Amino acid sequence: MKETGTEAAARTPLLELIDVVKRFDTGAGTVHALNGVSFRIRRGETLGLVGESGCGKSTVARLAVGIYPPTSGSVRFDGVDIHDTTTHQHLDRAAKKARHARMQMVFQDPFSSLNPRARIGRILEEPLIVHRRGNKRDRQERVAWLLERVGLKPEAAARYPHEFSGGQRQRVGIARALALRPDIMVCDEAVSALDVSIRAQILNLLLDLRREYQVAYLFISHDLSIVRHMSDRVAVMYLGRIVELALRDDLWRQPCHPYTQALMSAIPSVRPGRKNGKWMRLEGDLPSPFAPPPGCRFQTRCPFAEARCRSEEPLLKRVEGEHWAACHHCA
C-alpha cells in the first residue's frame, strides 16, 4: 500500500541535525564549537540536552533555529535543509517567514533578549502583527492570555522590561515564544532564572502545550532533575560532541559514558545518606575549544582513559535499542 502524505510527514523528523560542524574564526584562533553533532526530534517529542558550560549547547540552539549557519553538515526542519544554498529555498521570504512562525526560541539571557524601548504588550504583540494573526482586539486578548499563562498580570503589558526582575523578564520571553503556538520550541536554559514555584508553573505549562498542541522541544538545561522531568530522550554533550544519547529512563538506569556517569553522581540526593550511583570526581577543567585534545575529547579527565583513547576518536555507536554512546570503554 502506498504511503500517504500525512503518514510520510509523521515519519519525517520535525528537526534533524546531520553531522553538524561549527567553527568560529576569531583574532585568537579558531573555536571548534561543534564537531559532528547529529540528532533528530519527532513531533510532540522533547529532547533534553545537557552538558557543562562551554560545551556548545547554546550554539546547537542557535543553529537549530537558523541564527547560525553550520560550517558543514545540515539542519533540516520538516525535511527541508534550512541552509541549503543549492535551491532557491533560502531566498523565499514567505517560506522563511512561515518556518519562523513554527520555530521559536527562549533565550538564556532575559536581559538582552527583550527590546528595552518597547512595552511588554508591544513585545508580545509584535510576532502576531508580523504574521498577521487576528485584529487589534484579538491580539490584545492574546497578549493578556499569554501574560496570565506565565504568571504575570495583564497590567504588565503597559510596563517596560527594566521594570521587571530577571525571572519576570524570562517569563515574558517564554510568553513571546508561545504567542504563535509553534511546532517546536528551543528552550535554552528557559527556567534557570525563575523561582522554584514559578519554575514548576512554567514547566507544567510547557507540558500542557505538548499534550494539547503536540509542541516539540529542544530543552537545554544544567538541571538534570528538570531534564528528567521534561524529556523523552536525553543527549549528553562534551566539548562540542554528543557523547551519549538515550531514552530518559534508560540513561538514568544505566549511564554508559564516564562523563554521563560523573554528571549523574553529582546530582544532589533528597534522601540523607543516599547517593546517585558510584561517586565520580573529575579532575581538571574542560579543555579549550581552541585546541581540543586528540582522540577522545574526554580523555584528559576520564578515569578509564587508555592509549587508544588518546589516539582514536570514538564514534557514536549503538549500545542497545535507542541507547548510543561515543566511548571505547562502552564498546
**Category from helices, strands and their pairing:** alpha/beta
Biggest sheet statistics: 8 strands, mixed
Provide the succession of SSEs. HEEEHEEHEHHHEHEHEEHHEE
N-to-C CA distance: 40 Å
Number of helices: 10
Question: Please, what is the average pLDDT?
Answer: 88
Strand content: 15-25%
Regions with little confidence, pLDDT below 50 for 5+ residues: none
**Radius of gyration, whole Å:** 21 Å
Percentage of residues assigned to helices: 25-40%
> Strand arrangement, largest sheet?
6-7-8-3-9-10-12-11
Overall outline: globular
Quick one: how many beta strands?
12
Short description:
With 331 residues, the chain is of the alpha/beta class. The protein contains ten helices and twelve strands.
What does the model show?
The chain has 331 residues and is α/β, with parallel strands linked by helices. The chain is built from 10 helices and 12 strands. The strands form 2 sheets. An 8-stranded mixed sheet has the order 6-7-8-3-9-10-12-11, sandwiched between helices. A 4-stranded antiparallel sheet has the order 2-1-4-5. Strand 1 (15-26) and strand 2 form a beta hairpin. The radius of gyration is 21 Å and the shape is globular. 39% of the residues are buried.
Record keyword descriptors for this entry.
8-stranded mixed beta sheet, globular, 4-stranded antiparallel beta sheet, alpha/beta, 331 residues
Helices and strands, with pairings:
Elements: H1 5-11, E1 15-26, E2 29-41, E3 46-50, H2 57-64, E4 72-77, E5 80-81, H3 93-102, E6 103-106, H4 120-130, H5 136-149, H6 166-178, E7 184-188, H7 196-213, E8 216-220, H8 224-230, E9 233-238, E10 241-247, H9 248-253, H10 258-265, E11 317-320, E12 323-325
Helix pairs in contact: 4-5, 5-6
